């Protein structure tokens, strides 16, 4: 399983949307500021390195879980 940058960005955007929707005290300026921050983080070289690390961790976790399920179901 490979998580693309677009997929990771979508997951973060959905999480932020849910968080801001549940918090009745948020302001639209805060939402815009946080959204722009995440866009800049993902669009910079440092952000790309961080995204690669997250992809590696999630991919490794998904592979381990899949291997565990397969080994248990084969018994």
From TrEMBL:
Keywords per UniProt: Membrane, Transmembrane, Transmembrane helix
Keyword Membrane applies: yes
Residue ranges of the TM segments: 31-52
Superkingdom field: Bacteria
Full protein name: Uncharacterized protein
Source organism: Streptomyces chengmaiensis
Organism classification: Bacteria, Bacillati, Actinomycetota, Actinomycetes, Kitasatosporales
């Amino acid at each position: 399983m490979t998580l693309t940058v677009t997929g990771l960005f979508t997951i973060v955007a959905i999480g932020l949307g849910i968080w801001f929707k549940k918090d009745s005290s948020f302001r639209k300026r805060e939402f815009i500021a946080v959204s722009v921050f995440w866009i800049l983080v993902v669009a910079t070289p440092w952000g790309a390195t961080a995204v690669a690390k997250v992809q590696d961790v999630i991919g490794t976790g998904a592979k381990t879980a899949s291997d565990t399920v397969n080994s248990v179901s084969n018994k």
